[in-house]
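ok new one. same drill as before - structure tokens go in, u give me an amino acid for every spot. 203 of them this time. try not to just spam alanines like last time pls lmao
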């Protein structure tokens, strides 16, 4: 084996973007906040990742939480499948591998879930475990996730508790700190920080 064959495979910013379904700059910012694998170096001012650890990051749950709006459809799916379905096109939490998920309910309440696993359907990014036949067969809008050909992220959940009041109103997925959610389970109030407050970008 030659020297060059021994070198690790790398992902340029555009390579990573094509796999993850995000803009390259967005991935750089997520990595700077600790919400993706760290880039290993830069080339011509752009981040470069070693492929193996960058992809392996998605196979593990990490020390962050997410809050998502939970309409009636989402709550019905939670009751049926014990899972929250997120299209990868959701630019907010489709790539998340959180330990906790908060379902924001109309009226300002929150239901907190432990994330037991994350599976992906119709996408190159892996989940924390292999995608099961049962997950591929989940039905949304009269069609299984697999048959839809859309890329999905499926969060498998176990209920952990409730929060009496969540502020402000949540209209799209956002990242939270795990300790903030755990404190809210005790106090009954969750004030959702901005992304800059929860996960400031490292310089």
């Amino acid at each position: 084996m030659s020297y060059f064959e021994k070198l690790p495979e790398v992902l340029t910013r555009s390579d990573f973007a094509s796999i993850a379904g995000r803009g390259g700059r967005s991935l750089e910012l997520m990595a700077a906040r600790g919400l993706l694998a760290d880039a290993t170096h830069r080339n011509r001012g752009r981040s470069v990742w070693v492929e193996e650890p960058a992809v392996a990051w998605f196979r593990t749950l990490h020390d962050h939480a997410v809050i998502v709006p939970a309409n009636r459809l989402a709550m019905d799916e939670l009751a049926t499948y014990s899972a929250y379905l997120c299209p990868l096109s959701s630019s907010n939490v489709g790539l998340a591998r959180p330990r906790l998920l908060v379902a924001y309910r109309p009226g300002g309440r929150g239901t907190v879930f432990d994330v037991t696993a994350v599976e992906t359907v119709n996408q190159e990014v892996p989940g924390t475990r292999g995608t099961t036949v049962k997950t591929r067969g989940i039905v949304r809008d009269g069609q299984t996730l697999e048959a839809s050909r859309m890329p999905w992220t499926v969060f498998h959940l176990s209920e952990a508790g409730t929060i009496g009041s969540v502020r402000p109103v949540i209209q799209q997925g956002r990242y939270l700190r795990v300790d903030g959610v755990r404190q809210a389970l005790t106090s009954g109030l969750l004030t959702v920080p901005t992304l800059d407050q929860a996960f400031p970008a490292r310089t």
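Residues 1-7 have pLDDT under 50 and may be disordered. and btw The longest strand covers residues 109-121.
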